[in-house]
Structure formats: C-alpha cells, structure tokens
C-alpha cells in the first residue's frame, strides 16, 4: 500500500470542511458544500493527489448544492488515504471497509 508523500505544508486544508464521508470497499465519497472557494481548493487537491497517489482514481462531481469527491482504490489503501486527508473528520459512514 502506498502512502501520501505530500508534506503537511503541501496538504490542502480544505478537506477539514467536509460534511460527510462514505466508505465502501474500493470507494470513498467525501461531500462538501458547493462554494467557489471549496471547489477551487478541491480542484487543487485533486491535481496534487493525482501526482502523489497515482494508484487512486480521483474525481469531483458538482451539483448546485454539493461537491462530491470520489476516490477509487484498493480497499486497504482507502482507509490510509482518508486518515491522511481527513485527520479530524466528523461523520464517516463505514460500509464494510
């Protein structure tokens, strides 16, 4: 399992604004309010993480009210990635991970 190589200074802080995280085997979906600021930060996060964590598929879905960041990876890798990018995460719905 690969680990994140971003330093704390490089790690974007926008993930602390997440509303909800749902984990299933092989997939994590993190939900945010849709604001220009959060979208800009998530776009930057995805850009950095695609380089850092190439073993993960990163996608961002936008609706008028919400942004959903979806990560697809081997089930064992997701828990470590979520712990790294959401160190103080509130609600996480764990569905068999």
Describe the structure.
It is a single chain. The chain has 97 residues and is α+β, with helices and mostly antiparallel strands. It has one domain: Gyrase A, domain 2, CATH 3.30.1360. It is 29% helix and 29% strand. The protein has two helices and five strands. It has a five-stranded mixed beta sheet, covered by helices on one side. A hairpin with a 3-residue loop joins strand 3 and strand 4. The mean pLDDT is 79.
Features:
97 residues, alpha+beta, Gyrase A, domain 2, five-stranded mixed beta sheet
Q: Look at the helices and sheets and give the structural class.
A: alpha+beta
The strands making up the biggest β-sheet line up spatially as 3-4-2-1-5
Termini gap? 15 Å
User: In percent terms, what proportion of residues is strand?
Assistant: 25-35%
**Overall number of strands:** 5
Write the layout of secondary structure elements.
Blueprint: E1 20-24, E2 27-33, H1 36-52, E3 57-62, E4 66-72, H2 75-85, E5 92-94
Parallel strand pairs: 1-5
Antiparallel strand pairs: 1-2, 2-4, 3-4
Summarize this, please?
The chain is α+β, with helices and mostly antiparallel strands and 97 residues long. The chain has helices spanning 36-52, 75-85; strands at 20-24, 27-33, 57-62, 66-72, 92-94.
